[in-house]
Amino acid sequence: MKKTRAYAPASIGNVSLGFDVLGAALQPADGSLLGDEVVVEDAAQFQLAVEGEFSTKLPPDPATNIVTHCYYYFVEELAKAGHKTRPVAMTLYKNLPIGSGLGSSASSIVAAFYGLNEHFDRPFDEDTLLLMMGELEGQISGSIHYDNVAPCYLGGMTLMTGQDSPVTVSLPLVENWYWVVCYSGISVSTSAARNILPASVEMKTALTFGRQLGVFVHALHAGNTKLAATVMQDVIAEPYRKSLLPRFDDARDFSMANGALAFGISGSGPTVFAVCDDQSQAQNIADWLSENYIQNEDGFSHVCRIPTQGACQQQVNDKV
User: Fold this and answer.
1) Do residue 161 and residue 50 come from a single domain?
2) Residues that bind ATP, according to the entry (predicted)?
């Protein structure tokens, strides 16, 4: 019986200056995994099992799990495209905390769709899969956006085009940047984090947003990393969302005073990130955040890089 195992990494949505249109995949610098995994295998009927460190944080009914929704959406689209369908059993290894700002739902969705597409011999192309992923992500967050699913699926740092094809384009990576991420342990839902935002922004704010994003993209292509770092400021969401994150200002102040080039909220929070060009400084900031930003035993810090590869197949073992 065929068995496919897929891994999808954590991600930073927005990357401060790119609200809903910019995202980056994450990979711990020590080579460990930071993301969800899904195993797909042929079965007599569909079923879903959920395991992993954060599995108990999910609703117990498999019918409500987003991976179940991914399966039924996938086979519906498979049938529409004229392909044969068959039932499978799926296991979600929930390794990312829910409501963490690390693209937790996106990781489950991407691992599910990537695993299903591989298991069924790749019936859908990259853009089609991304549109499907965005649709399911929208069911959770309340709006379709790709700032987590795109980098999670494709790797790297991705900029959303607003088009059906290509859905996203890849931006150059700064090879000597380290990305410190710290999850405080509390949960902030994407919908709640969106509700705290104003319905509109002032013209001055909109102009600053557009200028920063344009300068950032130019700077990356030009290799001007100093310029890229100077515009990594969130003028859209952070002024409102930081009220949801205890000790955010303290964390920012310490990080910026100790070598960080930029500091911000990962996605909707509560995870924060700091960008450094020195690994020892990055580790120092990670250690401080572990001691001072984490709120409970669920929290963690990692020094990460941005991987060029996103979702991938892994060797299938009896245990994941």
Assistant:
1) yes
2) 97-107
